[in-house]
Request: fold
Amino acid sequence: MSVMTQRVFSGMQPTSDSLQLGNYLGALLQWVSLQEGREAIYCVVDLHALTVAPDPAVLTRRTRLTAAQFLAAGVDPDKSLLFVQSHVHEHAELAWILSTFTGMGEAGRMTQFKDKSTQLGESGTSVGLFTYPILMAADILLYDTSLVPVGEDQRQHLELSRDLAQRVNSKFGEGTVTVPEPYILKETGKIYDLQEPTKKMSKSFSSPRGLIEILEDPKVVAKNIKSATTDSDTVIAFDPDAKPGVSNLLSIYSAITGRPVAAIVADYEGKMYGHLKADLAEVVVEALAPVRERTLEWMESPGSLDEVLAAGAAKASTIAKVTLERIYNSVGLLPKRG
Reply:
């Protein structure tokens, strides 16, 4: 398959006002790169966000904010389809069909479900959380997706999508659905918590001081970087095992500037951690400033933003309808007339 015929699908949940630096470097910038020469489809997966029982008004605001950040970072609606998941009803419909092909044990073995259900307890764990990976599979298979940008934390969910696709094809014939392939995201995008640098930077598990948020006040971003955990040594060196804090700062510096870590280390030979932190704070603030500014501009014109999302949903629905009808016919559902 040539690059030009590859269809890419990915999405993010609107579970916070601001995306954090790990989202930006580890996924969003790579989405922007993937839209060049490929058929890219990007989605704000608001149905997935319902598994955490958000406040309705907050979910509405965050859905727009997330889409605005996609656009501000460089997702181009002239090159990619950008829409909100709930605006294309075929996602939920295909998820039901796929749930009938998924075993209880298979769904129960999903690592993220086991981790989150342990944290939430039985009373706080919903059926939606249990079936989350099936909806994710529907998101992917609905568009005959060739490539799915995926990090290690989502690899198991993508494997379920592949298993379900192969199961459907085995029963109803090859080509009923496309079996997606992973597009492994670059490790340069792997960003760790500023306060606990052995843990991945995460909106769910990081403290406010451990995060670098795209929409945060630049002064707060700089303060968080300058107060990042390092160690009692004074040598600036890249050693993730012995010096995770310093190594994380160097990784961020490299990811933002595109310079090799070794070259950055050489620049700081004989200098103190404070010099590295101060310079990195300036680099990060400068890099995020235009994204923050463009996001706020989109949020000041919600009508224009909604028009972009509506146009994307209309195009996405055209593709999704064809796939869903093919699967409905395969499983024997009576065709709808008129």
Remarks:
- Residues 193 and 201 are 4 Å apart (CA to CA).
- Strands lie at 7-12, 39-44, 80-84, 147-150, 181-184.
